[in-house]
Amino acid sequence: MSNSETDAPPMVGGVGTCSYYKNSYLQRRSANVVKEKIDEEIAKKLDFHNLPIASNTFRLADLGCSVGPNTFFHVQDLLEAIKQKYEMQFHTSQIPEFQVFFNDQPMNDFNTLFNNLPQERQYFAAGVTGSFYDRLFPESFLHFVHCSISLHWLSKLPEQLLDKNSPAWNRGRIHYTNAPNEVVNAYASQFAKDMENFLNARSKELVSGGMIVIISQGIPNGMLYSELQNGVMFECMSLSLMDMVKEGVVSEAQVDSFNLPFYAASPDEMTEIVERNGLFNIERMELNDPAAWLKRRINIPEWVVHVRAAMEESFSKHFGGEVLDELFDRLTKKLSKFSDELELKYREKTLLLVVLKRQ
Amino acid sequence: MSNSETDAPPMVGGVGTCSYYKNSYLQRRSANVVKEKIDEEIAKKLDFHNLPIASNTFRLADLGCSVGPNTFFHVQDLLEAIKQKYEMQFHTSQIPEFQVFFNDQPMNDFNTLFNNLPQERQYFAAGVTGSFYDRLFPESFLHFVHCSISLHWLSKLPEQLLDKNSPAWNRGRIHYTNAPNEVVNAYASQFAKDMENFLNARSKELVSGGMIVIISQGIPNGMLYSELQNGVMFECMSLSLMDMVKEGVVSEAQVDSFNLPFYAASPDEMTEIVERNGLFNIERMELNDPAAWLKRRINIPEWVVHVRAAMEESFSKHFGGEVLDELFDRLTKKLSKFSDELELKYREKTLLLVVLKRQ
């Protein structure tokens, strides 16, 4: 097993003003939207009568957990639903012991995660470092896998994006928003490969009857990313960087060679990948409204702070930390210019919920 | 389960010049002295025919692992001995999967640990935060526990040491070296309580037939700590601090209220505790020579750097970080004055090896 690094950025560590720890409540609200649906799936589909539980211990993993605190809330919610189902099936309050594995990449700030573990947790906690596109656990070890707001990060960028001779060369853009089909397809095919690796690894690690819940950025079937509110954001990032090229702050070659490894799949795409893999039953696959984005006109500065806490490491690695403030300032201004357009963009069914069960 | 903090200091984090990562090779050499003996115990006593191994996974925990790299070497050595024994018993190279849990306190620098995990490791790794005097794992989960150079750290200091009305008030000293019997007894009784908690927790976590290997600072039966080379070090720490009191750098009250939670048990003491607990068989209990200290005249500056990497957090928490340089400079000078006396002090059988087997 290697310390596999992926191209996905670690979230900003620590608990300071700019940290992901302090700036991830929008992600939390999004995930909360689907809480009831997940509870429902657990109540209906998790079947303790047919689940091998060795030594009376139920094991759950949160993959791509970041630094907290969202992961702690999700785990707590999941464990409550799981306990309820157990009590319902066995008419007993003598529940199993729970062991929870918090996973993220080696560059994740596990010190922050460990220092903020809930004091009164009713489970044994452990941290596991590594890419969830590889094996992380022994065979038949886990009963439940949760993967929230992280599977849209690709393990790596398609090489063609940097190849000047390829039709998928992604010149002057940092994402597939508004890009030629070849670029979109390169992203899509990397996503499919990653997802296949994810499913293969989990198929070994999960016991038969074990469940996977994925909450991820998604997109309605047949829609283009440029039609989404998020697409405007990626477009404005590209435009801000190209402005900085004009002013000599960064070079054109730097922008041409930079791409964000972020891909949002449609339900049809995801269904095809899971069916082709053939090791899991699809219990639920649907797009949801990410509530936080819907209720009011978007607060651009708040949005940018969240985007920065999740993505700045990517930019900083490529362009250097010294351009970050300028870049995100420009992004805020650029988005403000497009604020009316932003409100017209699609932002409803963009949260993909996938519930799978190991055959 | 709570984020139990103990009084034992975390080792200095990171990988810088003063880090424990860079300044723990003396500890490693000490532990290496007993490597062959541990291999021998595994070959003789670990019995796979009577060890319940669910899902073909063998689970090992290194408790008090610190930041590395020593823990990685120990784990590698242990796994090799364990694999050999397995192959010997089953005449097959189809060995189980291995899962290794690295444990230390919440204040330990797990980021450094995770970032330095061996690239080509043949095991699934996980980090577990918490005091090993409490439960860390579910029931019947582990097959092997290793605890190297860390059980001599008490979970907390006996309260009497700070009580002016108690005969165990440890005025003007920071350890039980050269202290009245009441002080020594207070330390000893805290150690016995801690060890009892350690054994009770492990008795739940280990499967029947599972093994514990403890390598710890020890002392021959009936010897006083002041007779040891280490005793001179603690004494020189007290003297250096009292010099700093005279010069007004720290206050006398600060020194009186500070004690190091460090206790070295004798084989007789340890035997009594394990037998009273009654849940483990003693497979081996012996004192060894810590090789690094024996072969040559002690290199005082090198020794102090190691002591500082392991202990500075205790001093810094109590006296403030700004006095550390002065304190350890004074300690080096003070020890140099006593360098001839140091060479005469006892330093042979001070490494206690304990091998236990869960009944």
From TrEMBL, chains A, B:
Q: Does the keyword Chloroplast apply?
A: no
Which parts form a coiled-coil structure per UniProt? none
Q: Entry's InterPro entries?
A: MeTrfase_7 (IPR005299), MeTrfase_capping (IPR042086), SAM-dependent_MTases_sf (IPR029063)
Instruction: Tell me one Pfam family matched here.
Output: Methyltransf_7
GO molecular function of the protein, one example?
Answer: metal ion binding
Keyword annotations from UniProtKB, A to Z: Magnesium, Metal-binding, Methyltransferase, Transferase
For biological process, the GO terms are:
methylation
| Gene3D superfamilies documented for this protein | Methyltransferase, alpha-helical capping domain (1.10.1200.270), Vaccinia Virus protein VP39 (3.40.50.150)
Q: What is this protein called?
A: Probable S-adenosylmethionine-dependent methyltransferase At5g38100
Gene from which the chain derives: LOC105125552
